[in-house]
Amino acid sequence: MKVGLFIPCYVDAFFPEVGIATLEILERCGLDVAYPLDQTCCGQPMGNSGCQEDAAPAEALFVKNFKEFDYIVGPSGSCVHHIRAHFDAIPQTEEVTKLRAATYELVEFLHDVVKLKAFPWAEFPHKVGLHNSCSTLRALRTASASEIDEPPFSKPMNLLRQVRGIEFVTPARPDECCGFGGTFSVFEEPVSAKMGYDKVNDHARAGAEYIVSADMSCLMHQKGCAERLGVGVKFIHIAQILNGARA
Amino acid sequence: MKRLDHAEAASRFIASTAHEAFHDQRLWDLRQKRDREAHHIPEWEALRELASAIKEHTLSNLAGYLEAFERNATANGVKVHWARDAAEHNQIVHDILSERSAKTLVKSKSMLTEECDMRPFLEARGIEVIETDLGERIQQLDDEPPSHIVVPAVHKLRGDVSEVFARTLGTEPGNEDVHYLAESQRRTTRPYFLAAEAGMTGANFAVAETGAFVVCTNEGNADLSANLPKLHIASIGIEKLIPRTEHLGVFIRLLSRSALGSPITQYTSHFRSPREGAEMHIVLVDHGRSARLGMADFWPALKCIRCGACMNTCPVYRRSGGLSYGATYSGPIGVIIDPTFDIRKYSNLPFASTLNGSCTSVCPVKINIHEQIYKWRRVMSEKRQLPLVKKATMKAAGQVFGSPRLYRAAISATGMAIEGLPRFAIYNWFNKWGRQREVPDAPEATFRAWYLKNRGGR
After folding, report:
1. Which letter does DSSP use for residue A109 in this model?
2. Rg (CA), chain B
3. ipTM higher than 0.95?
């Protein structure tokens, strides 16, 4: 099984440790993982802004980089959802549709494809609040959403529960969007920041030392809010915890 | 028409911290009550499917159902009128009133009459119009449109209501007791019910097979408006049709649970024919609905039963207040309907969303609201409605992300992934990001650089 490692642009530029953790955990699974060196972005910023035609070069490049792989795995629910749902600025050849379906978010890949059941190397002795991004919650459906009448389930929790010493706290509004929203964070700055403030305060009130998520973009926004507010919550990507980070 | 600036209006709402906090919590409470009610009903998701299918079927055969409705309502002794647009609607209503020398109209809440701007039209022609729904009356007295389609004054605190009533109804200044305030409104409205020559309601559902219509309210004001005067006019959007009475069993179960988290509204009133010695008129209104029905991506918005659940769950709406949308319809449903009325004015609204999708999950008729918001963004770009800065930024970003060389040059220069963009775009971006948030620190090396160093042999 050949796995292409998809590291979104903002992770490459700002959070290399998340990319490293993702790579290492896939290697721990014994998979043949490679990182195509010419990758840039999935095209989401342009698509999200309505400028789908401007996403075409990024999409074509993505296909060129990843067409050889059986699976494409990335540590970002939002980017993976974009590829699955909105990656249509270029002609939808069989190669493109196959690639879109083969693109996985890290948690669902570990949970559904690798079926990894144990993380003996992982220990995280902290109080943790889980933030499911809206893309993972309502689009990729890696967890149940509170407003939908369905039996509760959570793939990220199934994985995190295997980590030694970890303790979970639940905010009052666990499913509430944090207000990042990609370009929304800038175009609707007042609402975005207010939502971010409410989110980090909610987690802090619940007693979280760390907020963990499968989406670093949500965490980048929340971290910026917490630092400005002076709320002492820390932020960590789920890949880092599952790969054995202690803090 | 000038482009509406939702972000700016929202920032003013957020600046009033007490209002924003109350508004957010009040509507979140409604969302939670809705969850509790919905989760009590094992077949809830099946009901949503059914409601969606009934609406889709009706909309796909709308002409036939409208004609059947007209036929059956006429046979019941009701006079049916057709209005192509707001102007025709207002004229029809005015003609009915003036032919009978009616000077006062008591009415229950109707978003359709808001859409048509009916009140100012009638008032300019010497007809006094009294809103009898408490929230709608507060908004009328304060000369503001409703900010929410179900709870029109939800953006006001009790102190605001006290101030409005003291100024307009002569209540005791500073008295914020809710019972006192509600009772004062009731007492000042009652005489109008008794004196008015005409009453008006909207309709939640119009049943094709019987020619009857149904009005769901909690205050009983619609029943007084309809039953005390000798003339009852009902303004009904053509999308309110359902084929048969039995279908009400689906919609009534969904409506109030979705809206307020209550099993049913206090009053579910069925109107079929005029009382003896009284008249009943129905105005069937299009006002852009036929055109919307012809829009391949956006017609499902016509399934809407106006419950407001999408607004209550929307984290953006809860923080920005309904008036920030500058339109008859606010929140997620407003975002997908308003541009059909004025694409230029409402071209920013599809961006007043994080695309979180919660609206779609709660919609009782399964409108794909967040997907339509995404599609509206594309339409705004295609129809050249985006601000020039946004368009230029995305064009430049598209070029950078399309080229490994440009992308690497951009991030190696400063550690910032968007350095390749034009300077004005960068400043605009970082100014806004950094106004209330810290900017992430640039690491020593990118992931790619780490990978080359540590897995370089591959």
Report:
1. I
2. 25
3. yes
pLDDT tens-digit map of B145-165: 999 999 999 999 999 999 999
DSSP string, B35-71: HHHHHT-TTHHHHHHHHHHHHHHHHHTHHHHHHHHHH
Task: Report the predicted TM-score, pTM, of the whole model to 2 decimal places.
Answer: 0.96
Residue of A51, A58, A138 lying closest to B402 (CB–CB): A58
Cβ–Cβ gap B442/A180 under 8 Å: no
For residue B394, how many C-alpha atoms fall within 13 Å in the half-sphere facing its CB?
25
Q: Are B150 and B258 a contacting pair, CB within 8 Å? A: no
Give chain B's domains with CATH numbers. 1-40+308-385 (no CATH), 49-290 (3.40.50.10420), 388-455 (no CATH)
Determine, for residues A183 and B319 on separate chains, whether the beta-carbon distance falls below 8 Å. no
Tokens 């619609």 sit at which residue? B222
- Could you tell me which chain B residue has the CA closest to the CA of A59? B402
Torsion (CA) B350, B356, B361, B365 in degrees, nearest 10: 0
A42 to chain B, minimum CA–CA distance in Å?
Answer: 8
Residue range B339-366, pLDDT digits in tens? 999 999 999 999 999 999 999 999 999 9
Please state the length of chain A. Answer: 247
- Structure-block tokens of residue B420: 């390749």
From A193's Cα to the closest Cα of chain B, the distance in A is: 6
Mutate to test the interface with A, among B370, B401, B408 (most CBs of A within 10 A): B401
E strands within B89-166? 104-107, 128-131
Asked whether the beta carbons of residue A50 and residue B380 sit closer than 8 angstroms, the reply is yes
Q: Give the model confidence (pLDDT) of A192-208 as tens digits.
A: 999 999 999 999 999 99
Burial class of residue B17 in the structure, from the number of CB atoms within 10 Å of its CB (0-12 exposed, 13-18 middle, 19+ buried): exposed
